[in-house]
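Sat 14:20. Reprocessing the chain from the morning session after the first attempt stalled halfway. Input below, unchanged.
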Amino acid sequence: MRDDVDSESDLLEPEDTLVDRGVEDVLDEGYSPPEKPSDFYDGHESLEGRLAREVPNPEDADGDGVGDASDTDGEPYDDEVGETRAGRLVAADEGFGADTDEYLYARDVGIDGAAASAEEAAVHAITDDQE
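Finished this time. Tokens:
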């Protein structure tokens, strides 16, 4: 028997496997036990048996079309924010240097091609006549 194998956990060290998960010690990785004990599984279950245990999702009532939310008033536009989404906001100095201005100034450089973060998606443009 090899001495470098942990006999309690029977886990091989990373250098002894082809799997590299980025941890030096395999015990640092953790272990996720099965959700049900193995005694619960008594062999294979037929497809008919599994489908018989399925509970169908409740039918959603039709929404109002704005956000298709059935249990709310939808997501109407608030009078305090504009309907036009702003893009990425960049400081006047492109983000370089110390911020010495008393106020925050930025300009809209357009929507990024990737997915916007929640913070970016929450920013909307308003015109001066809406103020």
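Residues 63 and 70 are 4 Å apart (CA to CA).
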